[in-house]
Amino acid sequence: MLEHIRPPRRAVIVGAGLGALATAAAACSSADTPSAPASESPAAASPTGAPASGALTKTTDVPVGSGVIVGDTVITQPTTGVFKGFSSVCPHAGCNVNAITDGKIICPCHKSEFNLDGTVAQGPAKKPLEAKAVTVQGESIVAG
Where is this region: Disordered (predicted)? Predict the structure, then answer.
């Protein structure tokens, strides 16, 4: 009589984990190449007026006296033509700011507020938002 052979539970769990890891690695390694032609500058605006590949946003999308949050970057325009960039991570507890209202950058976790130049307007945060370099190239705002 043959006994039923059962693999150890740990081997099944480890095998499933390795399979999931291999699937994730394969998904991450797929070729994601920019679709912009090599002759086009990464900051050049597209014919539709949308920011080109590599651009964070268009200058016209950032209101004077306010700003926008693009991914992990906050871009403000405190005065006409002056653009500033900051990390979206609040220095108080590491939450991401999520709104810009009435000239203030707002963190939802503990209600810290920052001015459009990144300085603390209202705590509990004691440090300003970390500055991130942004530059204007044509009608686009790019990192760096």
Answer: 31-57
